[in-house]
Amino acid sequence: MPIDLSDKLRSTIADLPDPGIGERFLNDLFERHPREAARAARNEALISDLVTLAFYSPLLATTLLQHPEYIPWLERERADVRIRTKDDLLESLARFSMTHSQVEPHDLLARFRRRELLRIYLRDIRRLATVAEITEEISNLADAVLEFALRIATQEMDNRFGIAQETDQKGRLRPATFCIVALGKLGSKELNYSSDIDLQFLYSADGKTSGSGSRGCVTNREYFVKLAEQIVRIVGRQSGEGAAYRIDLRLRPHGTLGALSISLDEAARYYEREARMWERQMLIRSRAAAGDVDLFRGFESRTSSLIYSVDQRVEDALRSVGRSKQMIDVQNRGDNGGFNVKLGKGGIREIEFIAQALQLAHGGRDRWLRAAHTLISLSRLVDRGHISSTELTDLYQAYDFLRRLEHVLQMENGLQTHTVPNSPDHRWLVAARMGFSSIGAFDAALETQRKKVRTVFTRVFGDGDDPPPIAAASEIELQPSEVEPGNERKQAAALLSNGPPMMAPYFSRLIAAHGLTIEEIEPPNEAVDYHSILSTAVSSASDFRSCLAALRQSWSAEIIKIAAADLKGEISLQLAKDLQTRLAEASLATALSITRDQMRDRFDVRPMRMSALGLGKLGGRGVDYGSDLDLILIHDGESRPDDPEAANPEYYARAAEILVTALSGMTRHGNLYRVDLRLRPYGKNGTPTVSRTAFFEYIERHAAIWELLAYAKLRFVAGPDRDIEADARRIVHSRAASIEASTLAAETRSVRRRLELERARTRGSGEVDIKYGEGGMLDIYFATRFLQLRDYVPDDQEARATGPMIERLVSRGSLPAESADALRRGYRFFSELDHQIRLLAGRTTRLALGKRDLLESTARRMGLDTRERLIESLQIHRVEVRSAFEQIVR
Hints:
Layout: H1 7-15, H2 19-32, H3 34-41, H4 44-56, H5 58-66, H6 70-77, H7 86-99, H8 105-125, H9 131-161, E1 165-167, E2 173-175, E3 178-183, H10 184-187, E4 197-203, H11 220-236, E5 247-248, E6 261-263, H12 264-273, H13 277-282, E7 287-291, H14 293-307, H15 314-332, H16 348-362, H17 374-383, H18 389-413, H19 424-433, H20 439-461, H21 485-496, H22 505-513, H23 530-539, H24 544-567, H25 573-603, E8 610-615, H26 616-619, E9 629-635, H27 649-664, E10 675-676, E11 689-691, H28 692-701, H29 705-711, E12 715-718, H30 723-737, H31 741-759, E13 767-769, H32 777-790, H33 802-811, H34 817-840, E14 846-848, H35 852-861, H36 867-888
Parallel strand pairs: 4-5, 4-6, 9-10, 9-11
Antiparallel strand pairs: 1-2, 3-4, 3-7, 8-9, 8-12, 13-14
């Protein structure tokens, strides 16, 4: 070494599990900063802390070598072991900014955070604070950084536009307020060293700025969107110092399609009317991190009843949270890396889900249980008898162990990692940093803690090894890469632009997300090759996540071309449906290709052979905006000695999960379609996929009449086995031919009546259900399919829709002319009405007769003069269609 060190210091270095790390750090320090090193060497306790930090965190060792002025600061601060509050840290940050006045704000905040981590992690290593205290202080640090950034950004916005103002109840102007809402781990004050911070931005009310700035007056919405952009830029901008924090804004209302900042009323309406269950559950861990706390309290008071309900059933709460965990397991299957401390079985997420599920189950009736922090909520749950004191002790110990392990993993290089390495050398280093003398001892301790968590998790949720319900895939948010501030700005600006006077909100958001107006979108080419477009988009993707992102981006670019052309009257209804059907087929084929690649990469077996049959609108080549994809997945399940995976149901169940996630999983780029597998053999009790032989056997021997009515529209849509359709159709119609016509009619009437009673409860509501209601679209569908089965009239190979089938039934003598006229007219009317409602308002089967604007716009697009004319036509067709149904199915 460059200078002599005391025996005590040499002993300290020698006691490190890897003395070489300490020696290399000291050599670098003395070589690069001899004065600071010599001074530090006079304080043996300080130099011991420095080499210990270097051993635990190469990231912080680099920080000390880059900024040797932090060493005397650490010497002063290391003895103070109290938890620094947000206000304490703001004071420190203010002093830091005065001594670094020439540094850009984003660099300033990144440097300040890195300096503070030296102090916090040293306390963590020395076990001078609990995990809860450490994560609270890390969260306070993030709060201070956000508050500081908010002050800088507000000053800049006020200089440009003046102060944002709102009007009180007496009509007087007052300053509008703003709040940065923390979610996730920051929201519960359990932030990790390298966590993203999940944020939302709220402002109090709409209005205008005072206009006293250099750029004049703007709306509050524009002011606060720009304010949020500036905060994201200051806190999240990467530089030589890195970013202070990675900011994740995907959890805001409407995700990445939503405005960057929204008013209190707008946010409350979203959670009341549109938010999905997991979005409301997410608000359990929400709080004001910076800005106006009273504004957040107003938001909290309007949303708390949506999170916690007095009517919440325990089993429903457990099922909802358990389903989220199951989908996380699906997304992490096949990962050949080490144990994931956060998401793995027996990991941190399971502890959090235990707490949150029981909070949701009982918090509606017991307000005391509504605590954001995981450990606090667990302690309250044991007081109320929802978990035992033994379970609490086990979960506390596991949480402490797993969070400290997570800290060790993340502070090595400052990366957001949760995976314990498999490499023996690297694993030994992790074990040593956790205080174990061998990998074996560390592995045993890790397994013990995992088992503790898993035991409680299984007791609360049941056996978590079952595959999740396929229909749940679209409810779970996947984890794509972080949002780039530049894209956020583009999206927010687009949302402020004026769109068409009447358009479904989904299309408004989608068009805005592409930074376009409807006038700028070119119509689709009728001969467009969607399969080539989508497959090319995913061909350069490197992993599953990027495949999903590429597929969604490409798909959304194509669907808005169809919708925009439709709205502008540039394409016919038939072409719009034809293009959408072809896009759906290409999406399914691309998703199957992605699934094959994933199955090969994850399980290292021969190529997957799975095909898809479409039913409903997909089967009839009539896919429309918001249509589900009704599928039956068929695999080549013939057992062969050379291919043991061929008949493995678990293998194909996993393939089905990946396929559904590829199509339905919600990511930052949205999702494509809701996938419905409920029409598979044995419904929800059946396997997600079925072999060819088993499917044919089921139709022949077990399918109910209502299933035969559905299977009459089945069509091959993707996969290697095109012959399935013809063989299945033959079996369907042969089976139907063996059933007495009176029995077939009675069952058709029964099924139709049951759907009407269960799904079309509109009496007294001012609504008409155009699908399930009396005389609605289902009357037409059931009447034509009944005749198809009774008279052995299979679908034509090309013309699959109900309209051409009506003409075939007439030509075959199955359908009397009078009934045919009623069905023909009714089908044209309802198809057009359903299509226009989907385009203008979104997917719904219920038409509210009081929505004047929607009815008038729909009437104009359908060539009717007035809203009253539309309603009159609707009533006439309902009467005619119901009369025809009763004449046919009797």
